[in-house]
Amino acid sequence: MTFIQPPASNDDQQRSSSDLEAASFPSRLDWSEQGSAASLRTLFEDADSKARQAIDWYLRDKRPKSRWSRSLRGVAIVLTTGGGLTPLLAGSGLLQGTSVASSIPIPLSQLGYVLLALAAATVLVDRYFGFSSAWMRYMTAAMRLKAARTSFQYEWTVMEARLRGGNPTVDQTEAMLLKINDFVRLLHAEIENETREWIVEFRSGLSELEKAARTQQEQLKPGAIDLTVPNAIQVAPAGFDVYVDGTKMATVVGTSWQMAHVPPGIHRVGVSANVSGKWLDASGIADVPAGSVAKVSLPLPATTQVP
Question: What domains are there in the chain, each with its CATH number?
Answer without folding.
Answer: 36-219 (1.20.1270), 223-297 (2.60.40)
